[in-house]
Amino acid sequence: MLPREELLKRVVENREIVARAIDLAEQAIKTWEVVETDFLSPPEIAEIKGVFSRLSDIELIATGGYPQAERQRLGFCRSELPFEPSQVPLAAVQIAGNFLFDPPTHRDFLGSMLGCGIVRDKTGDIIVLGEQGAQAIVAPELVEFLETHLTQVRSVPVKTRRIELSELKIREPKKKEMVTTEASLRLDAIASAGFGMSRSKMVDLISSGDVRVNWKDIAQSSHALKAGDLIAIRGKGRLEVGEITITKKERYRINLTRFM
């Protein structure tokens, strides 16, 4: 049995979801089988990984159908067994329609899927293809249901069919490499440089709860960053902190990668 209470003491957010993950991990240990969660958000995945990081008898793999997927399922398996991402069940569907004169949004497709009666936890990323429609990653048990019931997005008729994960049309995220020199490793200083906005605007975003570091809400502008940290701002993309060195004038030279 896993040390449930000890593990949950470390949980700040998403306590119910982490508790469910512990239940699934225990099931995987008992049955010697792979057991998976529903689709989870990046903050939820990050917290579960943090909780399980010190355990040696259970292995977990996160997968969402392609390397950059945001929403992913976590699979649990005994550490002594072979375990590959392909063992975590995923499926994909093509949602095709003629959207030439009115390109749809991610919200349009998600709303239509949920309007069929499915729950968000069973859906992964949705890849919008403009006038051609979209592709969605879902739990395999939903495919047949969606093929029958997802027939319209907004006012446009669509045809939904299963496709292979290898048919997903993934676009590599745009990224920009940059270097900044700062007097400190404060979040507001580095993030304002990386996202190209004033420091006062960044302070406002941090205090309003729009900024996450490694998928955790950070409300302090003075939060110290380190190499490898990932900063995310709603609607503005992500910023990865790279190598940090100290200059001759004892300032911090920081490599940054912005994903847009």
How would you describe what is shown here?
The chain is an alpha+beta fold. It has 7 helices and 14 strands. It has 3 domains: 83 residues, Ribosomal Protein S8, Chain: A, domain 1, CATH 3.30.1370.160; 77 residues, 2-Layer Sandwich (Alpha-Beta Plaits), CATH 3.30.70.330; 85 residues, RNA-binding S4 domain (Structural Genomics Hypothetical 15.5 Kd Protein In mrcA-pckA Intergenic Region, Chain A). The strands form 3 sheets. It has a 6-stranded antiparallel sheet. Strands 5-6-4-8-7 form a 5-stranded antiparallel sheet. A 3-stranded antiparallel sheet has the order 1-3-2. The longest helix is centred in the N-terminal third of the chain and has 17 residues. The radius of gyration is 21 Å and the shape is globular. It starts with a helix and ends with a strand. The mean pLDDT is 93.
